Amino acid sequence: QEVVDFERLNEHAAAFQGHDVGFCCLGTTRAKAGVDGFIRVDRDYVAQAAELARAGGCKHFVLQSSRGANPHSSFLYLRVKGEVENLVQAVGFDRCTILRPAVLLCKRQESRPMEWVTQKFLGALAWVFPTAYSVPVETVARAMVASVLQPGEGKVEVLENGAIHRLGKA
Questions:
Q1: Whole-angstrom Cα distance, residue 155 to residue 167?
Q2: Which residues participate in catalysis according to the annotation?
Q3: Sequence-separated (6 or more) residues with CB below 8 Å from residue 70
Q4: Which of 54, 56, 90, 153 could bridge across to 17 with cysteines, CB 3.0–4.6 Å?
């Protein structure tokens, strides 16, 4: 494990050398980082890390994005996620897997009351519609690893929430 300063990521290029696969789950919230900080973390840092990984020999990049990602969206969050998907694909990996999970179900150390209420509601709804509106982070992690171990379906593969559930339980 290496700790890098994302504000000076180029100075840490050696940390990205010699890896066949790159996994990226980097992200923040607009509330925590502000609009500019959110864009910098969720788009710029991710794109720069992808470029460094490719330059370091990475062949397969696995990116956690978001359901509804669209570079033309009027919603900042979905627009930035769509933009970063395009930027990562443009890097030219031999294989790129993009996961688009719905609401992530997880336990956080920080307090987010509205997210907690939403997660409780979606957790209960998952009993009726298990793959429709949410996904546990553990399932996403397993799907990310499984995507590397299975042959791909083309140079770029986009896995929506249902496919994440299936692959994460395989």
A1: 18
A2: 77, 81
A3: 78, 79, 81, 82
A4: 56
Strands 134-136 vs 103-105: parallel, antiparallel or unpaired:
parallel
What one-letter code names the amino acid at 92?
Answer: G
Q: Which of 46, 124, 35, 121 lies closest to 83 in space, CA to CA? A: 46
Which amino acid makes up residue 14? Answer: A
pTM confidence score? 0.87
For 66-124, the pLDDT digits (tens) are: 999 999 999 999 999 999 999 999 999 999 999 999 988 877 566 556 655 665 665 66
Q: What domains can you pick out in the chain, each with its CATH number?
A: 12-101+137-161 (3.40.50.720)
The gap between the terminal CA atoms of the chain, to the nearest Å, is 28
CA distance 131 to 159: 13
Neighbours of 127 (CB within 10 A): 7
Measured CA to CA, the distance from residue 117 to residue 148 in angstroms comes to 34
DSSP 28: -
